[in-house]
C-alpha cells in the first residue's frame, strides 16, 4: 500500500502545482487586463472593474482553502500542501496590495481627466447592451452609422483557421467595421429602459453625440446637448454629421448620451466606424493576374489557345488567383490608426501577415450589377502596424462575376463578367496628423498574383480545393513567405503550372464602356430599339466595365450559427450522411480536417472525379441537399439542382438519362444533375497529411439539411455546419401554444434566413435571384424578423440602378430576362414584380423613417409612373385584355399574378392593382417630403384606377368582386380588394359575406396520387373520415381547402389572413393557419420540412423546398395571432398597434406572444387564457379570463385595440408597472427554458416515411424541435412580483372598437367573463361556410367601419 500512497501524494502535489499556477496566472492576467481597461473606462464603472479584479484573487484564496481541506482530510502531502498554500496566499497578498495601489492611482487619474467607455461588444440580434454609464432611465443601444452596426465577431464564426508559424500574433479587432464617406454620415440608435425606471421618465428630452479618434484619442466632433420634446411628438429619426469634415482613413469612435424625462443621463458604450474615399478619391487601379486578363483580349495568344470558347477560357482562369503586396511600416511618430480599404471581384477574403481579417467571404462584395456599383470593405489593421512589415493577401473566389458559364433557369450570361480583380489601399494616420496612403493596387507598388489552392469556385456548382497546394503554400501572405516575381511563358499557357508562381499583376483593361453595356442590355430587353442606339467601335478587350466603388451598404454574409449534426448515418461504401435537423444556407466545416479517403468498388452518383481517378489522386466529395430521394434514400439533388439543370432524377426522369450533361460547360462529374458539391483533392504523390488541412469551402454556399461525405472508412470528426446569411440583426419572434402555427412560423423564418445572401432571393440553390414579386409578398415578414434598414435600402438602390432609360423597372434587381413576357413590354417586368422598389420605399419609411431615401428614390418612381401612363393601357390590350373585360373569362392571359395559387389567377387585377399601388406609393412619398403636385397626381391616378376596378368587378351585380364573366373562384379578387381598400365602403360587408361562398377542390397532383396509392388502408380510412381525402371522379384525391388550409398564391395569403382578422373573422384565419392536410404547414412538416416550400403541393422533381415566397403568413402570426404590428400611419417604427385577437375555442389556441423590434426599441406582447377547465372538452363552452401584457420601449408609443366582445358581461381593466422590473433577466431565463424544450424536441411530433422494401408510406411518431411552444418572457415567474399601479376600466373598448393610447412602459390588461364557444364547422374541409354567407344582416361588427374604408395617403400598411 505504501508505494501506491506515495504515488498518489506525488500526483496530488503535481496536480496542485499546475492548478495553482493556472489560477495564479489567471489572476495576474485579470489584474493587468482590467487595469489596462481602466484608462479608457468611465468613472462610474471604475469600481466595478477593480472589484472584479480583486474578486479573482479572492477566488484563489477560497479555492486554495477548499483544496487544502480536501487534501489534508485525505491525509496526502500534508506538509507540502501547507507550504504550497502558504506561498499562494503570500503572493496573493502582495498582488492585492498592488491592485489597491493601482486602483487609488487610477481613480485619481480618471476623476481628473475625461475618458471614454471601451468599445462595445456588439451582438447580431438586437441584444441588450449594458450602459456605458449614467443614472438615466433610457439606455441607448444598438448604435449604427448609416444603418450599419459594428460586428465584433460573427455569432457562428468557425474556429480560427490554421495560422502559419510565420503569421502575425495580432488579430483584427472586429469582423465587420462600417465604412462611411466624409459627406454621408448619419447616426442612429435604439432605446432600452433601465431596470427600476419609472414610465414617466421614458421620454428622451435631449441627446449628445461625441466622436473621437480611435482608442480614446482626441475629440473630433461634439454635437452639444440637443433638446428634444418627445412628449410633443418630436422624434429623432437620424442625426447627420455636423462637425468638421472627417479625413479619409480615420477610424473613429462615438457614443451618444440621452437625457430622460427627469433630466437624468445615460451614455452608450462606444461604437466605431471608418472613413473611406469616394470613387474619385481612390488611388491605384483594378489589378489582375496577367493570363486571366489575356483570356478577355482577342489579340492575345492565350485567347487564341482557348479557341474563342467561353468555357475553355473560364477553365484557363482556374485555379483562382491569390494576390498580395508587401508594405513596410514607417514609424515616424506613433501610429494612430491603419485602415485597409479593399474590394475584389468575384469574391475575396483579405488577410494580413497570414491572419484572415474577417470570417466573412462567400459573397463579398454583395451582389449588385458590378458594372455600375461595387462595394468595398474597410479593416482596422492598426494592431498589425506593430509588425515591421505587412503582407496584404487576397484570396479570390468567382462569385457572381466569373461564374462557370452554364445557363439554365437563371441567366448568368446576362450579368457583367470579367477576370478576378482586386483594388486596395491602406491609409495610415499618425498621431501628429500626417496621413500616408500605401499598398495601392497599381504597377508601382509590388502587387503580385499566383494561382493557388482553389481549383474551382462557383455559387451553383460548389468549390474544389487542392489540399496539397493549400499546405505547401502555407504562409504565402506572410513576410517570410514572400518571393520575388517571376515571368510566365504565355505562349504555352497551362494554368496549373502557374500555381505558386508569383508574377506582377497588370491593370484591368476593357474597351467596353458602361454606356455600351447598358445600351446592349436595353436593346435585348426591348427597352429601346436597336436603331435608336449609338454605334460603338469593336475592341479587343471585351471584359465588362467595373462600376464605381462605394462603401459596404449592408453587413457582409457571415456565419450566424454553428450547428452540430443531429444524426450521422452509414450509407455503406464509405459514404456518410450527416443530418443537421433543419435546412439553411452554408457549408460544412471540418474542425479537425478529413480522414484519408478510401476507394470504393464504384463511386455513388455525383461522388466521382474522373480526372483525379485517372491521375491516381485522392479526393473526398461532399454533396449537399434539403431532402432525401424517397426511392433511394440518397440526397435529392434534383430539388436543389443549380439553374434547374437536371434530368429529373431516379424516379422522375423528365428527360432522357444524362440529357443535361451536354449543356454548355456542364461539369462532367455531376452525373446529369447540376449538384451542390465540394471536393477536397490531394495529388497522388503529395503528402497525405494534407487531408488534415481541410476546413471548409469559402466562396460558395449550399442549401442543405443533409450532407453526404464520400468516401472514408470512418466519418470525419469535428464536423459542423456553418449557417451563412447577411448579418442583419434579428429582432422579431413569435410563439404560440399551437405547434402547427408555431411550426409554420419557423418554416418561413428558416426559409427567409436561407435566402438572405446579400440579396433576398427566391431559393438559395436553383436561382438565387432577387425577384420583385417575392419582395412585395414577403417583405412584411422579413421586416418583422430582422432589422432590414440597410438591406432594403441597398435593395432599392439596386432597382434604381437597373431602371431603363424609358422609366421601366425590371422583374429582378439585376435584369435576367426571365419573365418579361408576362409584363406589358418595353423592358418592364411583370407589373407586380416591377413595382417592388416603390412598395419597398414606402415600407422602409414606415419602419425606419429615412426621408433621404424617399428624396433619392421618388424621381425614379415618378419615371416609372410616367412609363405606366404611356404604355400600360396599350400594353394590356396587346396582351388581349379588352377594356371592359367582356372576353376575359379564363385567366391568366398574361402575367404571373398571384403566383402558385391553387385556383385561377386573375392577372388583370394584379397588373392593374399594382398600377394603382404605384400611384399611391408616389402620393405617399410626395406627401412625406412636401411635393404637393406629385401627391395630388398620384392620388388622382390611384383613385381613377380604383374606381375603374370597382366598376368592372361590381357591374355583374353579384357582389363577389371577381372578374365580370368569371366563375367567382379566382384569386386575389375579394382578398386584395378588401385589404387594399379597393372595394367601396358600402359594399364591404356584402363582398365579405359572399367571399365565404368559396369552396376548395380536389387536387390532381401526381405526387399526391402516388402517395394515396402507397398508403395503408388504415391510414387511408382515417383520412377519408377527416375529409383529407375525397373522391375526384372514381379515385380518391387530396384536396385543398379555402377555410381550413391554403389555396392562395404569394400575395393573397397576406390579403386573406389580414382581411379575415381585421374584419372580424380571426377565428377563420386561425383555422387556416392551424389546418391539417394538403396545402398547410402541417402537410409540409409531416413530410419532414424545416423550411417553407415553393408550392403547397409536394414535388420530388421540380419545386424548391426552401422558398420564403409563400411566407407572408409569418407577419400575420405576429400582427394578428399575437397582436403587434406597425401602426398603419406611423413612420420610423415609432408607433405600434397592439390588437390581440382570440379564437372562439381554446382548443385552437391557448396563448400567443410576439417580440417586435423597431427603430425605437423592442415592443412585445403576450396573451393567454386563464382559468381554463381541466376538462378540455369544455374548451369551447367555458367562461375564462384573459391576461395580456404589453411592453413599449422608451421613445415608443402604441395604440391598444381590443377585440369585439360577443358578450356584454365581459369586462376589461388596464394597469401599468410603477417601476420597470428586470426584463432582461426574464428574457434571458425564458430563452434558456425555451432552448431546453427545443433540445428535448417538444414540437411537431410525426412525419411520413417511405419504406423502400414494401414501397409503402407509414406514419412515424417522433418528436421534433420545430414547432416547440414556449412561454413569453412577459409571463416569466420572475415578473410575478411586479408592482402594478391602479387599474383603469377599459371595458368600453370591447364594444366601441376605439383604441387606447399607450406611452412607454409595461402594461397588463385583464379581461374577465370571456365566453368560449365552438368554432364554426362549415360544410367540411373543402367546403364553404354557410353560417356566414347565409346570415341575415351584417355578419361582423367591423362592417360598420365603412367611413374609414377609403385609403388614406399616410397609410403605408394598406397601400396594396
TrEMBL record:
Q: What class of enzyme is it?
A: hydrolase
Q: Which residues form the signal peptide?
A: none
Is NADP there in the keyword field? Answer: no
In this chain the Alpha-L-rhamnosidase six-hairpin glycosidase domain maps to 730-957, 1048-1118
Give me the segments passing through the membrane: 14-33
One function term, GO molecular function aspect: alpha-L-rhamnosidase activity
Q: InterPro entries of this UniProt entry?
A: 6-hairpin_glycosidase_sf (IPR008928), 6hp_glycosidase-like_sf (IPR012341), Alpha_rhamnosid (IPR016007), Bac_rhamnosid6H (IPR035396), Bac_rhamnosid_N (IPR013737), Ig-like_fold (IPR013783)
Give the catalytic activity.
Hydrolysis of terminal non-reducing alpha-L-rhamnose residues in alpha-L-rhamnosides
Coiled-coil features, chain-numbered ranges: none
Q: Which residues form the Bacterial alpha-L-rhamnosidase N-terminal domain?
A: 334-493
EC number of this enzyme: 3.2.1.40
Query: Sorted alphabetically, which Pfam families does this protein's record hold?
Result: Bac_rhamnosid6H, Bac_rhamnosid_N, Ig_Rha78A_N
Swiss-Prot/TrEMBL keywords: Membrane, Transmembrane, Transmembrane helix
Q: Which domain of life is it from?
A: Eukaryota
Q: Is Transmembrane set as a keyword in this record?
A: yes
List the protein's name.
alpha-L-rhamnosidase
Q: Give the organism the record lists.
A: Cyclotella atomus
Amino acid at each position: 500500500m505504501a508505494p501506491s500512497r506515495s504515488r498518489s501524494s506525488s500526483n496530488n502535489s503535481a496536480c496542485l502545482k499546475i492548478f495553482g499556477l493556472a489560477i495564479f496566472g489567471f489572476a495576474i492576467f485579470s489584474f493587468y487586463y482590467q487595469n489596462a481597461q481602466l484608462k479608457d473606462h468611465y468613472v462610474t464603472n471604475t469600481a466595478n472593474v477593480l472589484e472584479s479584479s480583486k474578486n479573482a484573487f479572492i477566488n484563489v484564496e477560497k479555492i486554495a482553502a477548499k483544496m487544502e481541506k480536501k487534501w489534508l482530510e485525505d491525509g496526502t502531502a500534508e506538509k507540502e500542501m501547507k507550504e504550497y498554500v502558504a506561498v499562494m496566499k503570500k503572493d496573493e497578498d502582495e498582488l492585492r496590495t498592488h491592485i489597491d495601489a493601482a486602483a487609488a492611482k487610477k481613480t485619481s487619474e480618471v476623476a481628473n481627466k475625461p475618458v471614454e467607455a471601451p468599445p462595445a461588444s456588439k451582438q447580431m440580434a438586437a441584444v441588450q447592451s449594458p450602459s456605458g454609464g449614467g443614472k438615466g432611465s433610457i439606455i441607448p443601444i444598438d448604435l449604427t452609422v448609416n444603418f450599419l452596426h459594428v460586428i465584433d465577431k460573427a455569432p457562428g464564426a468557425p474556429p480560427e483557421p490554421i495560422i502559419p508559424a510565420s503569421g502575425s500574433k495580432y488579430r483584427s479587432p472586429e469582423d465587420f467595421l462600417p465604412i462611411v464617406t466624409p459627406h454621408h454620415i448619419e447616426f442612429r440608435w435604439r432605446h432600452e429602459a433601465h431596470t427600476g425606471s419609472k414610465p414617466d421618465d421614458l421620454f428622451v428630452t435631449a441627446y449628445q453625440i461625441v466622436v473621437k479618434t480611435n482608442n480614446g484619442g482626441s475629440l473630433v466632433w461634439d454635437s452639444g446637448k440637443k433638446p428634444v420634446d418627445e412628449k410633443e411628438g418630436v422624434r429623432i429619426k437620424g442625426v447627420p454629421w455636423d462637425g468638421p469634415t472627417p479625413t479619409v482613413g480615420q477610424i473613429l469612435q462615438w457614443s451618444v448620451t440621452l437625457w430622460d424625462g427627469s433630466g437624468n443621463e445615460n451614455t452608450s458604450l462606444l461604437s466605431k466606424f471608418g472613413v473611406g474615399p469616394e470613387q474619385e478619391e481612390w488611388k491605384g487601379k483594378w489589378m489582375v493576374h496577367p493570363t486571366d486578363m489575356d483570356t478577355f483580349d482577342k489579340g492575345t495568344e492565350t485567347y487564341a489557345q482557348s479557341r474563342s470558347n467561353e468555357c475553355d477560357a473560364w477553365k484557363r482562369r482556374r485555379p483562382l488567383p491569390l494576390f498580395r503586396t508587401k508594405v513596410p511600416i514607417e514609424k515616424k511618430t506613433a501610429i494612430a490608426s491603419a485602415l485597409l480599404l479593399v474590394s475584389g471581384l468575384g469574391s475575396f477574403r483579405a488577410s494580413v501577415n497570414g491572419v484572415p481579417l474577417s470570417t466573412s467571404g462567400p459573397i463579398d462584395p454583395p451582389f449588385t450589377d458590378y458594372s455600375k456599383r461595387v462595394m468595398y470593405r474597410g479593416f482596422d489593421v492598426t494592431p498589425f502596424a506593430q509588425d515591421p512589415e505587412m503582407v496584404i493577401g487576397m484570396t479570390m473566389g468567382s462569385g457572381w462575376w466569373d461564374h462557370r458559364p452554364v445557363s439554365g433557369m437563371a441567366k448568368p450570361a446576362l450579368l457583367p463578367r470579367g477576370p478576378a480583380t482586386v483594388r486596395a489601399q491602406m491609409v495610415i494616420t499618425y498621431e501628429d496628423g500626417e496621413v500616408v496612403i500605401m499598398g495601392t493596387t497599381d504597377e508601382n507598388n509590388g502587387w503580385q498574383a499566383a494561382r493557388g489552392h482553389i481549383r474551382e469556385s462557383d455559387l451553383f456548382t460548389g468549390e474544389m480545393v487542392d489540399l496539397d497546394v493549400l499546405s505547401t503554400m502555407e504562409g504565402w501572405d506572410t513576410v517570410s513567405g514572400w518571393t520575388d516575381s517571376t515571368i510566365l511563358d504565355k505562349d504555352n499557357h497551362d494554368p496549373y503550372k502557374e500555381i505558386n508562381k508569383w508574377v506582377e499583376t497588370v491593370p484591368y483593361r476593357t474597351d467596353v464602356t458602361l454606356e455600351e453595356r447598358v445600351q446592349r442590355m436595353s436593346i435585348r430587353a426591348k427597352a429601346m430599339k436597336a436603331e435608336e442606339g449609338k454605334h460603338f467601335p469593336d475592341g479587343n478587350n471585351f471584359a465588362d466595365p467595373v462600376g464605381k466603388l462605394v462603401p459596404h451598404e449592408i453587413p457582409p454574409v457571415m456565419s450566424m450559427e454553428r450547428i452540430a449534426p443531429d444524426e450521422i448515418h452509414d450509407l455503406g461504401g464509405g459514404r456518410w450522411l450527416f443530418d443537421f435537423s433543419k435546412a439553411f444556407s452554408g457549408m460544412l466545416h471540418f474542425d479537425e480536417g478529413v480522414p484519408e479517403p478510401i476507394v470504393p468498388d464504384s463511386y455513388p452518383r455525383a461522388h466521382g472525379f474522373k480526372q483525379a481517378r485517372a491521375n491516381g489522386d485522392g479526393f473526398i466529395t461532399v454533396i449537399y441537399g434539403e431532402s432525401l430521394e424517397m426511392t433511394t434514400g440518397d440526397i435529392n439533388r434534383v430539388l436543389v439542382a443549380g439553374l434547374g439543370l437536371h434530368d429529373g432524377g431516379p424516379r422522375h426522369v423528365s428527360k432522357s438519362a444524362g440529357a443535361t450533361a451536354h449543356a454548355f460547360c456542364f461539369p462532367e462529374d455531376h452525373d446529369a444533375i447540376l449538384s451542390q458539391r465540394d471536393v477536397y483533392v490531394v495529388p497522388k504523390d503529395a503528402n497525405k497529411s494534407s487531408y488534415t488541412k481541410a476546413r471548409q469551402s469559402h466562396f460558395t454556399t449550399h442549401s442543405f439539411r443533409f450532407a453526404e461525405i464520400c468516401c472514408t472508412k470512418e466519418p470525419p470528426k469535428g464536423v459542423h455546419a456553418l449557417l451563412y446569411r447577411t448579418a442583419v440583426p434579428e429582432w422579431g419572434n413569435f410563439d404560440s401554444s399551437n405547434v402547427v402555427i408555431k411550426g409554420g412560423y419557423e418554416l418561413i423564418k428558416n426559409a427567409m434566413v436561407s435566402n438572405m445572401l446579400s440579396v433576398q432571393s427566391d431559393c438559395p440553390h436553383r436561382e438565387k435571384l432577387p425577384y420583385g414579386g417575392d419582395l412585395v409578398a414577403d417583405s412584411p415578414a422579413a421586416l418583422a424578423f430582422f432589422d432590414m434598414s440597410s438591406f432594403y435600402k441597398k435593395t432599392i438602390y439596386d432597382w434604381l440602378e437597373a431602371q431603363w432609360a424609358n422609366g421601366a423597372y425590371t422583374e429582378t434587381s439585376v435584369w435576367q430576362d426571365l419573365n418579361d413576357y408576362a409584363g406589358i413590354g418595353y423592358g418592364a417586368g411583370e407589373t407586380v414584380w416591377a413595382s417592388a422598389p416603390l412598395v419597398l420605399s414606402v415600407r422602409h419609411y414606415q419602419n425606419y423613417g429615412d426621408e433621404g431615401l424617399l428624396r433619392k428614390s421618388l424621381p425614379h418612381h415618378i419615371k416609372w409612373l410616367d412609363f405606366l401612363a404611356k404604355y400600360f393601357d396599350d400594353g394590356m390590350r396587346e396582351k388581349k385584355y379588352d377594356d371592359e373585360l367582356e372576353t376575359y373569362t379564363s385567366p391568366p392571359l398574361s402575367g404571373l399574378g398571384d403566383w402558385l395559387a391553387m385556383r385561377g389567377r386573375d392577372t388583370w387585377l394584379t397588373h392593374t392593382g399594382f398600377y394603382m399601388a404605384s400611384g399611391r406609393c408616389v402620393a405617399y412619398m410626395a406627401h412625406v417630403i412636401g411635393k404637393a403636385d406629385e401627391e395630388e397626381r398620384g392620388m388622382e391616378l390611384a383613385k381613377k384606377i380604383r374606381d375603374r376596378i370597382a366598376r368592372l368587378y361590381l357591374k355583374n351585380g353579384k357582389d363577389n368582386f371577381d372578374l365580370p364573366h368569371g366563375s367567382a373562384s379566382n384569386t386575389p379578387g375579394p382578398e386584395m380588394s378588401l385589404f387594399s381598400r379597393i372595394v367601396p365602403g358600402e359594399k364591404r360587408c356584402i363582398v365579405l359575406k359572399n367571399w365565404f361562398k368559396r369552396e376548395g377542390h380536389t387536387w390532381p397532383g401526381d405526387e399526391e396520387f402516388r402517395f394515396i396509392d402507397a398508403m395503408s388502408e388504415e391510414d387511408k380510412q382515417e383520412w377519408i373520415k377527416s375529409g383529407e381525402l375525397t373522391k375526384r371522379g372514381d379515385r380518391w384525391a387530396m384536396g385543398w381547402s379555402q377555410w381550413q388550409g391554403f389555396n392562395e398564391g404569394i400575395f393573397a395569403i397576406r390579403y386573406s389572413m389580414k382581411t379575415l382578422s381585421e374584419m372580424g373573422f380571426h377565428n377563420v384565419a386561425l383555422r387556416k393557419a392551424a389546418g391539417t392536410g394538403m396545402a398547410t404547414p402541417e402537410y409540409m412538416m409531416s413530410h419532414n420540412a424545416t423550411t417553407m416550400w415553393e408550392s403547397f403541393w409536394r414535388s420530388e422533381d421540380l419545386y424548391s423546398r426552401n422558398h420564403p415566397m409563400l411566407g407572408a403568413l409569418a407577419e400575420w402570426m405576429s400582427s394578428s395571432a399575437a397582436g403587434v404590428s406597425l401602426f398603419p400611419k406611423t413612420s420610423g417604427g415609432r408607433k405600434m398597434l397592439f390588437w390581440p385577437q382570440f379564437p372562439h375555442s381554446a382548443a385552437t389556441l391557448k396563448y400567443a406572444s410576439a417580440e417586435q423590434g423597431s427603430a425605437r426599441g423592442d415592443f412585445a406582447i403576450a396573451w393567454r387564457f386563464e382559468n381554463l377547465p381541466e376538462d378540455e372538452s369544455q374548451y369551447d363552452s367555458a367562461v375564462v379570463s384573459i391576461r395580456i401584457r404589453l411592453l413599449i420601449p422608451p421613445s415608443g408609443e402604441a395604440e391598444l385595440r381590443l377585440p369585439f366582445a360577443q358578450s356584454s358581461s365581459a369586462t376589461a381593466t388596464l394597469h401599468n408597472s410603477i417601476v420597470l422590473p428586470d426584463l432582461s433577466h426574464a428574457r434571458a431565463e425564458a430563452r434558456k427554458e425555451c432552448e431546453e424544450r427545443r433540445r428535448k424536441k417538444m414540437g411537431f411530433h410525426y412525419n411520413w416515411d417511405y419504406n423502400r422494401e414494401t414501397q409503402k408510406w407509414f406514419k412515424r411518431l417522433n418528436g421534433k424541435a420545430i414547432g416547440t411552444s414556449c412561454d413569453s418572457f412577459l409571463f416569466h415567474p420572475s415578473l410575478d412580483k411586479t408592482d402594478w399601479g391602479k387599474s383603469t376600466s377599459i371595458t368600453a373598448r370591447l364594444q366601441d372598437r376605439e383604441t387606447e393610447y399607450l406611452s412607454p412602459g409595461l402594461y397588463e390588461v385583464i379581461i374577465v367573463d370571456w365566453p368560449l364557444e365552438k368554432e364554426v364547422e362549415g360544410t367540411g374541409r373543402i367546403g364553404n361556410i354557410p353560417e356566414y354567407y347565409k346570415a341575415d344582416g351584417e355578419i361582423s361588427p367591423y362592417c360598420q367601419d365603412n367611413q374609414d374604408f377609403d385609403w388614406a395617403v399616410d397609410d403605408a400598411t394598406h397601400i396594396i
